[in-house]
Each structure stands twice: as structure tokens, then as C-alpha cells.
């Protein structure tokens, strides 16, 4: 994962090479919906819970390498709670105070409407998700970094040549371990579950876009 973060950093530096290209600063705000998860180690050893929805915010810098294509480096964060229940002979319940940081590099494909204020777009993103367990107990780890990907669809609504409103829907997905291996552990409830499941977060929101060059 360190190699992935180094790669993202190198690519962000490479964006500076395109300083002569159009550059946009994007601010993001969105509501992310609940996502349930479960992991079964055996019929008598399993964990399930829910990542609660909440407000996600972030920012990005985008370079338009072509009229219809951009590359963006962005950061997103959500602070939320994850009630979990672990069963192994007995039942152990607790609520994780969870912070999730996304560092993503995304391609943006634009579908420009000639002489219009709308600028629809779509694209895919790749990067890293950093999970912080802010009230870890027992065998739980405090932080973990996992590969993640995302997809989005939206539009820019330009009020002028420099300022616009951004509306979008997106899906973020990260591979996340349940149990002693990652941020959701078993605390004082017994041995950890070592298998993995996948987290999906769907969000709706918008933000501001500023064309700085």
C-alpha cells in the first residue's frame, strides 16, 4: 500500500507539468448512505454490523489534459459510527468511532454541450482508503490502509467562466477486513475473524468548482 501512496504522490507531482493546461479546484460535500456488512468464519463464529451514513467532505485539484478529459487528485473524509456484533459462543457488541479517509486519482470524461452552461461528466477513480478506529479496544488495530476504487456521474453547472456548481452521485468501494486483521476487531470478545469483505459507500451531493486557469 505504501507503493500505491507513493505512486499517487508521483502522479500528483506530474500534474504540475500540465500547468499550462486548464486547472480547476473542486470542493465536495455529500451525504453517504448506510452500508451493512457481515463476515462468517464458521456457523458459530461471525461478525456483522453497519457503517452509518453521514456527511462526507473533501477537495480536489483537476487538470484538463484535453477539452473532454481531465485528471483529478482528490481527498474525501467521513467521520461516522459502526455498530458491530461479534458472535463466538457468546455475543459481544460495541460501537466503533470510525474515520475514513479516501485519497483518490480519477479520470473525468466530459460530455460538453456546445454553448451551454451544463457540462455532464463521468469517470472512475483508484486510490487508498485509510480507516481510523478512534476508540480501539483489545485486539483491534487503530489504523489500516486498503486499496479502493470509485465511480461517479454528475454535471458542472457554470454560472460564469470561472465559477460553477457541481452535482454528482458516486460509489466508493474498499476491501476491508472484519476481525482482528483490521479496524473492526473483537475487542474483549475473543479470537479475531481473519476473513475479508468489501465496503460500499454510495453518496449524493455537490460542491463548488473554480476554474483558476
Task: Please tell me about this protein's structure.
This protein is mostly beta strands and 213 residues long. The protein has one domain (2-17, 34-211): Porin (Beta Barrel). Helices cover 7% and strands 67% of the residues. It is built from one helix and ten strands. Strands 1-4-5-6-7-8-9-10 form an eight-stranded antiparallel barrel.
Task: Summarize the model shown.
By secondary structure, the protein is mainly beta. The protein is built from one helix and ten strands; from the N terminus they run αββββββββββ.
Low-confidence stretches: 177-195
Distance between the termini: 33 Å
Q: Helix/strand-derived class?
A: mainly beta
- According to DSSP, the number of beta strands is 10
Strand order of the largest sheet: 1-4-5-6-7-8-9-10
Strand content: over 45%
Q: What is the global morphology?
A: elongated
String of helices and strands: HEEEEEEEEEE
CATH topology: Porin
Number of alpha- plus pi-helical segments: 1
For the sheet with most strands, the description reads: 8 strands, antiparallel, barrel
Gyration radius, in Å: 20 Å
Count of discrete domains? 1
Give the helix/strand layout.
Blueprint lengths: L1 H14 L7 E10 L2 E8 L2 E7 L2 E13 L2 E20 L1 E21 L7 E16 L9 E16 L4 E15 L18 E16 L2
List keywords for this structure.
213 residues; mainly beta; Porin; eight-stranded antiparallel β-barrel; elongated
